[in-house]
Amino acid sequence: MTSVPPVLRGELFKSGENNPAFKLRWFELFADGMLVWSEQPGSAAKGSFLLRDAIIGFETPVLKPTKSDSEGRFGLRVTPATSGRHYMLRASSEEERRVWAEAMDAAAHLVSAYRFGGVGRVVKMTKPPSGRLGIDLGSPPGTACVTVIKLGTEATAVQSRQPGLLVGDVIVAVDSTVLRTMAIADNAFGRIVPSSTMTLRLAGWNRELRMIKQGGVSGLTLCAPSAGTGVLVYSIAPHSAAAVAGLNVGDRVLAINSVHCAGHEQASDQIRSALQEVRLIVSGVTVGISLRKDTNGRIGLGFAKSSRLAEQGAVITDVLTRSAAAHAGLRNGPRLRQDPPPALGPMWPSCSPVLGLKWPSCSPALGPM
Q: Which of 56-65, 88-97, 257-266, 311-320 has the lowest mean pLDDT?
């Protein structure tokens, strides 16, 4: 094929032309637009096609995978310009799919307007001369790719010169390699030459908050999410340390004082045992918006009915023009993370029952911290 290094490589699931079952294959995408696949890294190529002017689109995620689906649930349909065949590929996570879609779209169209949305932060790090990164990785249940579980002294020293990784960050790719499994991650990091710079693509926009407890109290109650890592903010006392720090109900806390959250009880104990300052790694950005109902008792929002989406909050799908929601600047796509207080009654009388969200596995006995 070509002797130049690939711009992206990693594992994807692919269905055959005559066999609909998805099988794991090693893919390599080159700068000339050629996509090549083989059974494993270094083995003979089983096939290839040119991506120039190809049509690339997302497939609906597989909610209930069958045996023929393997682990691939997030599909890509690729139709090369030189043939009418549709190539069906699948990734194990939404984050992996977006990385592949972005790279394929750039190869297919020289002037690319990437249509699939970004993945997250990009961090550049220099591998220490000792060769030790000081990064502990893991693959907790429900997470994509690999997750930063701990940052050691080597990584902390690098961070002090060039801030980047946070405990709880999910690494999607290192340089040109997509990290579908821990084995691939170990191999990718091992290939990095000491004192050289590597580029890490992360799955989100995590941030660090600093909370100063007031009289030993944070005013924060946590609970376990129904899916995914970390813990969720269940309630915040008004004017408390948590409120002053900028936390919102529904925030997902990934790490506390550089320790990855393994459960809401452990996380609650960590906050209680902290003397005064508590450093929290929080996933994404949330904002609180106050809306006033119109004379008909509505605010002008519609939400997704999928119970799967409801596990992590209701997704806004409709914003009525000239409504309170529209005037507040809301749009389709954001996820509602907090229920209305029961005393206020339903805020959305015309919407689906999916809005009656529940935060499971919360421990009222813990009380506010």
A: 311-320
Alpha helices in 74-195 (DSSP H): 94-108, 153-161, 182-191
pLDDT tens per residue, range 332-357 = 656 665 544 333 233 333 222 222 22
Q: Are 143 and 137 in contact (CB under 8 A)?
A: no
Write the CA distances from 122 to 125, 171, 197, 201, integer angstroms. Answer: 10, 10, 13, 5
For residue 311, tell me if it sits in a domain: no
At residue 170's C-alpha, the angle toward residues 164 and 172, to 5°, is 95
* 162 plus 245 within the same structural domain: no
- What is the pLDDT, as a whole number, of residue 14? 93
Assess if residue 156 is contained within a domain. Answer: yes
Do 21 and 104 belong together in one domain? Answer: yes
Do the domain assignments include residue 340? no
The arithmetic mean of pLDDT across residues 151-179, rounded, is 72
Q: Name 35's bridge partners.
A: 29, 49
Which tokens is 229 given? 């890592």
277-325 per-position pLDDT tens digit: 999 999 876 666 777 788 888 888 776 644 433 444 566 767 787 787 7
Residue 189: domain span: 122-202
The distance from CA 57 to its chain's CA centroid, rounded to whole angstroms, is 20
Angle at 167 (CA atoms; ends 161, 170), nearest 5 degrees: 105
Q: Note whether 186 and 271 are same-domain residues.
A: no
Cβ density class 3-34: b for 16+ within 10 Å, e for less: eeebbbbbbbbbbeeeeeebebbbbbbbeebb
Residue 92, both tokens: 């194990």
85-138 per-position pLDDT tens digit: 899 999 988 888 889 988 998 888 765 444 455 557 888 888 888 888 778 887
More confident residue, 113 or 193: 193
Distance separating the N- and C-terminal Cα atoms of the chain:
61
CA dihedral 65, 67, 68, 73 (to 10 degrees): 30
CATH number at residue 145: 2.30.42.10
Show which of 258, 286, 314 is a domain's final residue: 286
Total number of domains in the chain: 3
What's the one-letter identity of residue 230?
G
